[in-house]
Amino acid sequence: MFHNIPVTPLVWVFGGLSLLVFIKYILRLPARVEAYLKHLWVYFLIITAAELTGFKVSVWILAAVCFVALREYLSLVDLRFQDRWGVWGAYFAIPFMAYFIQIGWYGMFIVSIPIYIFLIIPFLVALGGTKTEGTVFSVGAIDFGLFLFVYCAGHIGYLILYSTWSTVLLVLNVTVSDSIAFLMSTTGKGPWNGKIIKYLIAVPFTAGLSVLLITLTGIPWHHSIIIGTIIPAIVAIGRYAMTYIEADLGIAEDYDHLRRGKLINSSSSLLFTAPVIFHYIRYFLT
Questions:
Q1: What tens digit of pLDDT does each residue of 219-233 get?
Q2: Whole-prediction pTM value?
């Protein structure tokens, strides 16, 4: 279904985004926009690296991003000192997952974290000390971080292995959904400004973009429309859920002065969407 695509279009996209990242140092952009622009540049770096230098390089860049995101998340969670073994176990899961993606071992990738690592983490947490109070919270907090910032992010890497331009389609559609919702939020209150509706407004734009990229993605038009339609819905669900999680972590308050948590906020839409789109493409198009 997918075919080799010339490198030039992707290089132009990455070059244009790099220019925007440079311009942001001249312009005074909102903190959320600056953080989102950096996160977007990193993911296009990963995709472009897959085209220019090979998949092995890009998957380890992604692994580094997973480590930074997981570390940022765990730094905001109130864990106990005795949970350190569980934390180290979570970090060590990242290179194993990256290796399974690199060699294309789908069966092991898909079960490595939600089965094996999720079973090992409680043992490591229990191994770290004798205090039992707070164990359930610690295990749940570590497992959630692993699931979202490592496992879900890993689906981006596996999607790149299938098709770089399908990954570009995913990232661009998520960006369009987030951007339109952000613009709606800045226009004031209105019926279009609900927590879910402001993301669904992007459906005509994301569906249209998906169709425009057919020649590059190789995805049939009807599947392109479906993908472009469901992405804003998943982004809306993810953003709605993460609003509560981020507020609990202290990310939502006084965002402009936060030193930690910006990567979590910037990447949550993509991480919620990536597994769904990956499995859709894998089931219907490969």
A1: 999 999 999 999 999
A2: 0.89
